Structure formats: C-alpha cells, structure tokens
Amino acid sequence: MNTGSLRILRNGLALFIILLFFSLCNVTLWAVTRDPVLQRRRIQGSTRFWIRATLKALNISFSLSGAENPRSDRNYFIIANHISYVDVLLVYALRPLTGVASVEVKAGGLDGFIAKMGGSLFVERRSVRHLRGELAKVTALLRDRFNVLIFPEGTTTDGRSPLKPFKTAFFAAAADAGTPILPVAIRYETINGRPAREGDLLDAVAYYGDISFLAHAKKFLALKSITATVTVLPPVEAASAHRDQLGATLREQIQTARDT
What we know:
This protein is an alpha/beta fold. It has nine helices and eight strands. The protein has helices spanning 3-32, 36-57, 86-92, 103-106, 110-117, 131-143, 171-177, 213-221, 243-259; strands spanning 60-65, 77-80, 98-102, 121-123, 148-150, 181-191, 194-195, 226-232. Strands 1, 2, 3, 4, 5, 6, 7 and 8 form an eight-stranded mixed beta sheet that branches. Helix 1 packs across helix 8 (213-221) and helix 6 (131-143) packs across helix 7. The longest helix has 30 residues, at 3-32. The protein is globular, with a radius of gyration of 18 Å.
C-alpha cells in the first residue's frame, strides 16, 4: 500500500471516529433538551468542538486576519466566498453558528446527514413562493441572537475565478432583525506545503463542477496538510443600502481580500 493510500485510510478512519462521536453527542442533545433555543445553542457548541477536532485530525490550520472587527457580545449574519466543504469548518471554528443550506443538501448523502446533525437550517432557495416563510425562519434565528452563515454565491467555485454574483434575498432577514452583515474571505494558501494556486493543486480542496463527492473526497483525504487565511472584514449594517447594491459592494470587498 502506497503512502497516498495509507493517508486516505488514516484520515478516513479519523473522520469516521469523529463523525460517530459527533453524531452521538448531538443526537443526545436533541433528545434531552426541550427548549428549542437552548437546544440550538448546545448543538452549536458541540458542533464547534468536533469541527475543531476535525481540523486538527486532518492537519488543517488557518491564520485569522481582522479578528478585531466583530464584537464578541453580538451576533452576525455571516457571508463568505465558497470554494469547498472545508470553508464551513473554517468559519465554524471562529464562532458558533447556524449554517443555511439548500433543501438539496438535506436530501443528499453524507454531507446532508452531517449538516442535519450540525443543526443547519434548510431552506428552499429556488421558489419565490416559499421565500417569505424562509426569510422568517432566518430572521427569527437572528433575533434570538444566533450567528447565521450563508454563502451568497449559491454554489462553490474553483477559488481562482471571480466570485459569482451574490444572491441577496436573505440580506432582507438581516435588515429585518437589525443584525449586521459580517463579510468573510477565505483563501487557501498552501496544500502539502506548496502554494495552493500552483498548477491544479487547489482542485484537491476546491469542490466544484460535476465531480462526484466520493471522487473528490478521495483526493482530499490523501492530502498531508492545508493552510488557509480567513479574513474577517468590518461588519456592515444590513439596512445601510439596497440589498443588491450592498451585495455588489460586499462581493467586491470579499474578492479583493481573497486575492490579496
């Protein structure tokens, strides 16, 4: 068995063990906590603990820029560029949060199960008819002082190309709740000790296009190490501009931070 196969086996086993205990902990918390707000806070705390364990097990580290921008005593509507499922781990490591995911993710395989166990909020983003109800769910979470994470591109990219135009419908929830928007830029710096943008190396982390989850996971689990930079930009009041204008401005800021 070669080194790559051994690494896949080792990382896969570590993930399996973490996923097992993560699921047991969160299912127990769901069962014993009746108050829905307290239940979500406990789920968030547990999920953040196991996400940090995952980062350590897979030798994924990140440097944080702009740590002074968010206040520790308030919640935010967090938006970020989207390259990989690793993005969720990096942002969740910063602070407890509820991720907003599409109903397609919920219907998926392993990624849908993990998102459900982590307390994600699943929304129907394709139907205007359901939009008002979905916005109300996000607004309620923000008013209960939860951090909410959404990837406004609506899909993943290769990490090199310009960001896709932001879908800003859920910015209205932040405006209704009076919650600031916190822009976050994610950039992968090195993979296996080499510059991430060297050749096609970044494709081992970036999960985009029509590649299957299993095919990508095989490449990802064979990696020795990943380093990233997470840049937290200054928060912006959600009602400070029309949401489309605000989306364009924040997209430009995040892309600039990603590419710097």
